[in-house]
Design a protein that fits this description.
By secondary structure, the protein is an all-alpha fold. Helix content is 71%, strand content 0%.
């Protein structure tokens, strides 16, 4: 198996991850809007969590949760599309197309960083370990992309 296949697999994994997260969050939003039935079960539950966190200790305004959730949906969609594009154009980390890889990772790392900052701002640490773990996994994936090298044996 060529190293390039492993690297492309890393990119496709993150593309699929963001796609699945986006779909469950989108279904959550559609259910909240009444566009999906009350017994629709394929939802993340993240909208209710954002409502709870923003209204918690800090007591944010009611409009904040839907705005933040919409922003997360857009950010996840962008990261997913960027990983799909990176996987599609990827040849190696020494080719000019590596900028698309870096852009996808930058978008995703930015999302986890934003979540960690939100955990701190809203003084709610229930999910900070998860957010830090995802940030770490993404950094390790990016490191692997750079450390894996093609050799003559493929």
């Amino acid at each position: 198996m060529k190293v390039r296949t492993i690297q492309r697999g890393i990119l496709l994994f993150w593309a699929l991850y963001f796609l699945l997260v986006w779909i469950t969050n989108l279904c959550d939003a559609l259910k909240e809007l009444g566009w999906l039935g009350k017994d629709w079960r394929y939802v993340s539950g993240n909208y209710a969590l954002i409502v709870e966190v923003t209204a918690g200790k800090v007591g944010g305004p009611a409009w904040l949760a839907p705005v933040l959730f919409a922003g997360v949906l857009l950010w996840e969609a962008a990261a997913g599309v960027m990983f799909i594009r990176a996987a599609a154009v990827f040849r190696s980390m020494t080719q000019p197309g590596r900028q698309t890889v870096h852009a996808a990772f930058a978008a995703a790392l930015g999302l986890w960083a934003a979540f960690i900052l939100a955990d701190e701002f809203f003084i709610d640490y229930r999910f900070e370990t998860t957010h830090r773990s995802l940030l770490t996994l993404q950094l390790l994936s990016l490191l692997a992309m750079h450390l894996l090298r093609d050799d003559a044996s493929g």
